[in-house]
Write a structure and sequence with these properties.
Elements lengths: L4 H4 L8 H15 L10 H15 L2 H8 L22 E3 L4 E3 L11 H16 L4 H4 L8 E7 L1 H6 L1 E6 L5 E6 L8 E4 L15 E7 L6 E3 L2 E9 H6 L1 E7 L2 E7 L8 E4 L15 E8 L6 H13 L6 H8 L1
Parallel strand pairs: 3-7, 9-13
Antiparallel strand pairs: 1-2, 4-5, 6-7, 8-9, 10-11, 12-13
């Protein structure tokens, strides 16, 4: 499994923050073990994708990785050491001195020599004995998946998931949560070793599609049917939004495909004062049973009011 977080997401180091988010959302759906139970490699791919996103989504952490200060797991990289830094230095607790002597470092990598010094120090200090040294380690993270309704994701809320042992875990859904986003619940993972802190629970959330609303970034989109007379004459109609119904004025002479904007009726993210808009695309719906009087009127009207809305389209296609 590739440990390079950029390669795990199928990206290069020049990727933007938005490209990182899109790649994560796409890959998490194609690799989540709960969604692909027959794919034996799904879990490993999912873990690699999640770890890569956890590292790169934070600009500060990403910058530290790019600078070589931390590795792909987020661990600090030790400063580069040289053997000469340890020559003629007493190793406290080892009761012996490493000195430069003929043949000691010939043909050996300085990093190997340094590693040997540390191993000897660990052996003499009993570092492998948890009880005597007070060794502690954080517990492993636990990963779960959760599907939430569309409106819960944009409005925020709280739900619960059932763990493999039958226990319940409360999960707070922040408003504006995106499909494929992973929530971190501190201390809800496996217990630590030697009294160390428990790991975290990482909950990947999938947002259920809505029959009316669509989300594009922080904007909400929907298609609004209007009648033939509303398109011709205009008027005020009722439109659903994620916060409830509101009034919308249809301008006279509106065509199908025209988009009207309701400002500030989109998604509000946690920690932000601004929110997106709602875009309303109009579509004219003609009744199945046309009124005979209206049909006769339009037949006569068409004779004296010729119009071809496709003229520019046909002209452009021919050039």
């Amino acid at each position: 499994m590739n440990t390079d977080p950029y390669a795990a997401l199928g990206l290069t180091r020049t990727a933007t923050t938005e490209e990182i988010k899109k790649a994560h959302r796409k890959l998490v759906r194609s690799s989540h073990p709960d969604l692909h139970p027959d794919d034996l490699g799904a879990e490993d791919r999912f873990k690699a994708v999640s770890a890569a996103y956890d590292l790169l989504k934070d600009p500060e952490t990403r910058a530290r990785y790019d600078a070589g200060e931390i590795d792909a797991q987020g661990a600090e990289r030790p400063p580069r050491q040289y053997y000469r830094d340890f020559a003629d230095r007493t190793d406290d607790g080892a009761d012996h001195i490493y000195r430069q002597r003929q043949g000691f470092d010939q043909g050996r990598d300085p990093a190997d020599i340094f590693a040997e010094i540390l191993r000897n120090r660990a052996r003499t200090s009993g570092a492998g004995d948890f009880g005597r040294t007070g060794y502690t380690a954080a517990g492993a993270d636990a990963r779960y998946s959760l599907e939430v309704p569309f409106l819960d994701a944009v409005r925020g809320g709280e739900t619960r998931i059932t763990l493999p042992d039958g226990a319940n875990l409360a999960v707070k859904i922040p408003r504006g949560l995106e499909d494929g986003q992973t929530l971190r619940l501190r201390g809800k993972g496996a217990p630590g070793l030697g009294g160390g802190p428990a790991g975290d629970a990482l909950v990947t959330v999938f947002v259920r599609a809505h029959p009316v609303f669509r989300r594009i970034g922080d904007d909400i989109e929907l298609t609004l049917p209007i009648t033939f007379e509303e398109a011709i004459l205009g008027g005020k109609v009722t439109v659903p939004t994620i916060d409830g119904n509101v009034g919308l004025t249809i301008p006279a002479g509106a065509s199908s495909g025209r988009v009207l904007r309701l400002r500030g009726r989109g998604v509000a993210r946690a920690g932000r004062d601004t929110r997106g808009d709602q875009k309303v695309e109009l579509t004219i719906v003609v009744p199945k049973d046309t009124d005979p009087e209206l049909r006769d009127f339009l037949t006569e009207w068409r004779k004296t009011h010729p119009s071809d809305p496709r003229a520019d389209l046909l002209k452009g296609a021919a050039t």
